[in-house]
Design a protein that fits this description.
globular; DUF4960; 2 domains; Rossmann fold; 24 strands; DUF4960 domain-containing protein; 367 residues; disordered N terminus; 8 helices
Length: 367
């Protein structure tokens, strides 16, 4: 009899427990106080929300007026916040954000820091006009025009830690007929660039300058082996670039004129130097871009237009922070992206090249 009673009690207890669990699963007691804010944007830049310590931080361009920034926040229904989303904030000092789910109120602290704002261009001449290579000189003059007061020119022999004070992005373009090694005058100051990069500096490297990622020790893949340095010649074809179907691919190609899905032209018929400096991904497992990214913490952004779907090559690559390297490098090694036409013709696709470089500089500048 006792066994029967005990057994009955166990069944009743189990049923009550199941009913209780069901009720708990179906009961919603509102958003968790810990992660009550989904996301925050300041002047359109996504902020980092640390729910554990209640800090919201954002890095903004060095010319931002912190006394008047736009605040946008996403949060679950039923939550109230103060100040309200869509308002302007003065972030010259940290601002408190009060968040309530109707039961509990929590305080976050919003703070902002200004990134360095200068764009520095490296070259072998005493001035921009003294740079020896036509493509490098044209790239430097373009950057000076685009970035105005933010632009600084640094000759190789004046490259010091002090010269990089206030520099956000280092723009290094190098091109040479007959050789692809980095210039000795630059390598004499490689330690300066290395410190800048290791500590979080950003670099955009174009043409043969993509080899800088190897000199710094960031790229040890050995896959950057499609390299040309010939004098070039006339070619009747129109060459193009294809972008990976990724968020970064969309960002770097934004504003380009597409002739097909994710594909643009960069140089028309005429004289071409054909100075490629690409990564050969043929030995990697499929999908090759994923294998490359997982192995080297680097994302392929673009390749030749005809080769982008096969993923066999990397022509524009973003090297992300990895190990002791806290900085980013965007390497652009597609040979058809020439800055100056050797036969002095007008390249109808020149704007595409400049748009890609500007998007790359601006993207890294926001990191």
């Amino acid at each position: 009899m006792k066994k029967i009673i005990l057994k009955s009690l166990m069944i009743v207890t189990l049923m009550m427990g199941l009913q209780s669990c069901t009720e708990r699963e179906n009961y919603t007691d509102g958003p968790s106080v810990l992660d009550i804010v989904s996301s925050v944007e300041i002047n359109g830049k996504e902020a980092t929300v640390n729910h554990l310590n209640g800090n919201i931080t954002v890095s903004l361009s060095g010319d931002t007026d912190l006394s008047n920034v736009n605040f946008e926040a996403n949060f679950p229904q039923g939550v109230t916040i103060s100040p309200n989303t869509g308002t302007s904030l003065d972030l010259t000092h940290p601002v408190s954000l009060m968040v309530s789910n109707g039961v509990t109120t929590r305080q976050y602290t919003i703070s902002a820091k200004l990134l360095p704002s200068k764009i520095a261009f490296l070259g072998d001449g005493a001035t921009l006009n003294d740079i020896s290579d036509d493509d490098v000189k044209e790239a430097g003059l373009w950057a000076q025009q685009v970035y105005g007061s933010k632009f600084v020119y640094i000759p190789y022999d004046q490259l010091t830690e002090g010269s990089l004070d206030g520099v956000n992005v280092l723009f290094y373009m190098y091109d040479k007929v007959g050789a692809t090694d980095q210039p000795a005058a630059l390598l004499e100051h490689l330690n300066v660039i290395s410190k800048f990069f290791v500590q979080g500096g950003k670099i955009v490297a174009g043409g043969h300058g993509t080899g800088l990622v190897e000199e710094l020790g960031r790229d040890k893949s050995g896959l950057r082996n499609i390299i040309g340095s010939g004098s070039g010649g006339n070619n009747p074809d129109t060459w193009g670039v294809g972008f990976a179907p990724t968020a970064l691919g969309n960002t770097i190609s934004q504003g380009c004129q597409f002739y097909s899905d994710r594909k643009i032209y960069v140089i028309n018929a005429g004289y071409k130097e054909d100075h490629n400096a690409l990564w050969n991904l043929g030995t990697l497992d499929d999908p090759k871009f994923v294998s490359f990214s997982n192995t080297y913490d680097a994302e392929v952004v673009a390749a030749w237009d005809w080769a982008i779907d096969g993923q066999g090559f990397g022509g524009i690559v973003l090297w992300k922070p990895s190990g002791r390297f806290e900085g980013y490098i965007m390497t652009l090694g597609i040979g058809g992206m020439e800055w100056h036409m050797n036969d002095n013709r007008v390249n109808p696709y020149a704007d595409n090249i400049r748009t890609i470089y500007k998007n790359s500089i601006d993207y890294l500048g926001s990191k």
